[in-house]
Amino acid sequence: MLPLEIERNDFGVKLNHLVSPAKPIQTVEQLEGRTKELARIEKALFAEGRHVFIYGNRGVGKSSLAAAAANQCQSVDAPYIDVSCSTDATFKSIVANIGYQAISASRLRKTKTTKNLGIEYRFLKAGMSSETTTYDLHDEIHSVADAGEVLREAAAIHSERPIVVLDEFDRLTSEADKVLFADLLKYVGDKKIGITFFFTGVGTTLEKLLGGHPSAIRQLETIELPKLSWDARWDIALKAAKAFGLELDEQTCVRLAAVSDGYPYYVHLLTEKLMWHVYEAPAVITTIEREHYVAALHDAIESINAELRRPYDMAVSQRTEDFEEVLWATADSDYLDRTGDDFFTSYQYVMKQRDPFSKRTLDSAAFKAIIKKLKSAPCGEVLVNSRFNRRGWYSYREPVLRGYVRMQAEAHGIELIGETQATKELRQVSGRTGYYGPSVPRGVHFGRRR
Ligand SMILES: Nc1ncnc2c1ncn2[C@@H]1O[C@H](COP(=O)(O)OP(=O)(O)OP(=O)(O)O)[C@@H](O)[C@H]1O
Ligand SMILES: [Mg+2]
């Protein structure tokens, strides 16, 4: 029970406003730990013809940053244009979609912006004059110049400062369409068309996402989105607790932040479950402690979607229990890219917590054989060779899975993540904007030496 009285329905609504694991954040007020990125976007957009490309791992918060920043930059006379790429999206369908959204925004607003005076409409005219949307803009786009002109008209009727968010650009699979987009950006810049794009995409390099088109890349402010800092992870949980008059015990806060691996999705999910647990507890709770956190952890594991956890399930459905323990070891440490030897050190640590007298502990060779298997399809291809292309280095195919692996380990009583110093190799390869170094803040100790 909460210290303050609140109706179940009101509680649910209020909680959903504070944490939303399944929905990207829409406002900068709700966005934690992205001050630097927002400032970069703000500064970049002073330059005419500049667009923003936010890329990074799945679930790291790309759509949230794009939506919050778009809401901030878009003029108040219309909502920003929101296009999500599906696998069957094409260059033409996306441009047509932008056109349709501009038409419906202008219909809703009714009053015309000053910009649309003096424009000779060619593409959007039919849609603007008829009340139906059956008008097929798609078939009228035959070239990059046509698409550019659709955007010019869309910009004129949409709003004073139109922003387009093109979410999940990586799902656009056709290389030819990617090149067309790159050409379109160039066209928009050269012809001074007043529309700004915010792209998001899962990926580790921009070249892969945009097909390495140099002149388009020059027009982009590219933001490789790192995982959330520890402060931001804490702030999400602490703010939610405070909103319901609760205190959060420091150790619980540290565990929640550590287990999340910096993925806001897990922080939101764990916080949501934690709050429900407190709400439904028979006695009044004023401080959230470990026992509540452990209960929330089990609830969170249950509600993780099947697609995300499938590789884990596949790996642990192998014949022996060893796979699960080996897997936990791979999710230890703040670093995503690690060596087989480093995994093995983590494994020994896992087994010490598991059962200090166990005879089952694997030796290094048997351990590494399982690590190799974790790269195979029957084991869900959990691991891949490190992108640094060094022999004996591994990474996660889907880095967001590490959070789930950590939750599983923690639910089995194994606390992962230690304070480690960056290895020399990792320090050399970093120097990018992404997050590769240890993030454990000073003063936080896990009581563990390595
Ligand atoms: N900076 C942030 N502060 C607080 N919560 C965040 C932040 N970024 C993301 N979130 C939360 O984390 C969840 C995942 O974020 P989001 O959907 O933006 O990630 P994504 O990178 O677009 O994921 P995907 O790759 O699956 O599209 C969202 O539900 C959102 O509520
Ligand atoms: Mg997204």
Rounded radius of gyration (Å): 25 Å
Portion of residues in beta strands equals 5-15%
Mean pLDDT across residues: 86
CATH class of the largest domain: Alpha Beta
Ligand roster: adenosine-5'-triphosphate, magnesium ion
What percentage of residues falls in helices of 4 or more residues? Answer: 40-55%
Identify the CATH architecture of the largest domain. Answer: 3-Layer(aba) Sandwich
Task: Characterise the protein shown here.
The protein is an alpha/beta fold and 450 residues long. It has three domains: 1-21 and 230-303; 34-224, Rossmann fold (3-Layer(aba) Sandwich); 309-450. The chain is 48% helix and 9% strand. The chain has 19 helices and ten strands. The chain has helices spanning 8-18, 35-44, 62-73, 91-109, 125-129, 144-158, 175-190, 206-210, 214-218, 230-243, 250-260, 264-280, 290-303, 306-316, 322-330, 340-354, 364-373, 401-411, 424-429, and strands spanning 51-56, 81-84, 163-167, 196-202, 220-224, 247-248, 287-288, 338-339, 383-385, 393-396. The strands form three sheets. Strands 2-3-4-1-5 form a five-stranded parallel sheet, sandwiched between helices. A three-stranded antiparallel sheet has the order 8-10-9. A two-stranded parallel ribbon has the order 6-7. The chain is globular and about 80 Å long. It starts with 7 loop residues before the first helix and ends in a 21-residue tail after the last helix. Adenosine-5'-triphosphate is lined by residues 20-25, 31-34, 58-64, 202, 236, 264-265, 268.
